[in-house]
Amino acid sequence: MDFSFNEEQEMLRKSARQFLEDECPKKFVRDMEEDEKGYSPELWKRMAELGWMGLLLPEEYGGLGGNFLDLTALLEEMGRALLPGPFLPTTVYSSLPILHYGTEEQKREFLPKIAEGKLIMTLAITEPSGRFDEAGIETKAIRSNNDYLITGTKLLVPDAHIADWFLCAAKEGEGITLFLIDAKTPGINCTLLKTLAADKQCEVILDNAKVPARNILGKSGAGWEIASKIEQWGAIAQCALISGCLQQVLEMTVDYTKERMQFGKLIGSFQAIQHQCADMAIDVDAVKFITYEAAWKLSQKLPATIEVSRAKAWTSDASRRVCLTGHRIHGGLGLTEDHDMQLYFRRAKAMELAFGDGDFHREIVAKELGL
Amino acid sequence: MPINMIVCCKQVPDPEAPPAVFKVAGNKMTLPADVKPVISPYDENALEAALRIKEKTGGKITALSLGNKLVRDVIKKSLAVGADELILLEDEAFEESDSWSTAYALATAIKKIGQYDLIFCGRQAADWDAGQTGLGIAEILGIPAVSVARKVEVTDGKVRIEQVIPDGYEIVEVALPTLITVTSELGDLRYAALKGIMAAAKKQPTVWKPADIGLEPSQVGAAGRHSKLNKLFQPVKEAKCEIIEGDSPEEAGANLAVKLREAKLL
Q1: Residue B4: its H or E element
Q2: What is the ipTM of this complex?
Q3: What pLDDT does B236 receive?
Q4: Contact: B77, A15; criterion CB under 8 Å
């Protein structure tokens, strides 16, 4: 069995690593934590020029026709570099649903602009209940002639403060409908939240925001089917980010054990430290391969419910273990703001929870096992 | 006027790897497996020079590399950034080359390619830093060579080159065809766009063995060397830290000057 990336993916990975090492050093990551926008429009433009935004889109919409496994290679490098910005909300959470469920008019309207880096989008599903299921959606959509009036509160919407458009879930009668909403629509109020990872999450309040009926994505009342698919894409995208993030934590920690002296010896020579590093390496490898399997299934458009949830459950838990062990080995140094460990720990925590934590996905795995 | 360019790109162990991992054993350099190969950085600068000319005047870029078991996703970076063709002189007979046997094989391959206006090489490769291969190719081909270029422009059938000298640069004008070795001041190689990467992955390089360029295995690689490596060793470096003190910064500065004079550094 050959589990390695193919030649094209390996070239993509190397090229992305070099680009991100040069353009997204840790000083930039720290600066973006303090920056109100939380991303660099200049870097965004350069990423678009490299074709990253259009990776998953077909050529007819200005993309390159890549697949989810190609994206996984790219996301691992983004996770390793802790790239800040609205890449996932724009591409995975928004352009993919439009590509798979949008009308031809919607595809022509949105996808080429996304591929060119000229449009930032995000996903507004979660609400104060924190649930990621149909019952968690209380935002209401009421039909008014050829429009809908949407009212409700969306919470933890990534990068909403800089988004041009939202993909928003609202309750219409008994079903859920997804709407494409212009962020400039009157009645929308966006507030930036303070988060552990200093990523840019927002509260979005919609107060009778008027949305044309033609902006429904998919069928009216059948939006949860799309949301469930977005959840799968989003979960695996998060797994890929975590994979890159944990790989870097592992490398950073092993390097540290080869430098840090204690009792006159390098701490990497102690069996207690060696075994903890070995546990980290085992976790990181498991994260990679369980993620690749699910990403491959998604790239082949095969049913992947159990594979996705298995991957996210394992990866979420492993991220906690690896970061904790990394911190333990680094000791007090890893807790200082100047050290990069705390950046990785805080991001890993956010990614652990995004699109469902271990328990959430264990429930799905159990259900798929017929329990 | 479209220009036919050949860029020599050498695959070397990543020079950014920590120096401590490079070991010498049995007169050979050994490396751990986690030191990945890359295209030699000055060769990347050379490739960038060619790409800029292609953008301005049009033309064709052929990347040429020599070695054995060359890693495809490394060496095909030239195609990903915009080279039109990749030719590999790839065979175990090419292993353990010195500057001469490398230059001879590359020059012979360039003769086989035939049409060329400009040949680009890095000023030196990041593995041995000899800096001889480029000029050796020019000598064998009987064409002019300009070394250490920081800017290259083609106008009216001539090449205008800014050549780095110790206290600045001088401008040199040369007729085509010519060989240019390029330095880092020219600028970094551009990043490969996804479109280029995907196109490169679909292209297969042309692979030539010694016989394909009309050479015997005895004329290339270790067998074709003109130099003999007597001893390869890592110099032992000792560092000592001494704090120069003084009652005031001026006095400390003066004491430092005395120490440096004693050490014959001033």
Answers
A1: strand B3-8
A2: 0.88
A3: 84
A4: yes
d(CA B73, CA A50): 18
B72 touches chain A (CB under 8 A): yes
Structural domain includes residue A106: yes
Contact state of A51 with B192 under an 8 Å Cβ cutoff? no
CB-CB under 8 Å, A11 with B76: yes
Chosen CATH of B3-224 out of 3.40.50.970, 3.40.50.720, 3.30.300.30, 3.40.50.620? 3.40.50.620
Look up the domain containing A178 and give its range.
122-222
A244 lies in the same domain as A305: yes
pLDDT tens sequence across B138-197: 999 999 999 999 999 998 889 999 999 999 999 999 999 999 999 999 999 999 999 999
Where does the pLDDT of residue A224 fall: very low under 50, low under 70, confident under 90, or very high at 90 and above? very high
Q: Give yes or no: residues A247 and A347 share one domain.
A: yes
- In angstroms, the separation between the Cα of residue B72 and the nearest Cα of chain A is 7
Residues within 8 A of A (CB atoms), B 179-218 only: 191-195, 197-198, 200-201
Does residue A2 form part of some domain? no
Distance of CA A354 to the CA centre of its chain: 7
| Percent of chain B at pLDDT exceeding 70 | 100
* H helix runs in chain A, sequence order: 7-23, 26-34, 41-49, 68-81, 87-90, 96-101, 104-115, 223-257, 271-299, 305-330, 341-353, 358-368
B193 interaction partners in chain A (CB closer than 8 Å): 49-51
The residues near B199 (Cβ < 8 Å, ≥ 6 apart) are B79, B80
Question: Which two tokens mark B87?
Answer: 């030719």
C-beta atoms of B73 and A49 within 8 A: no
Number of structural domains in chain A: 3
pLDDT score for A247: 98
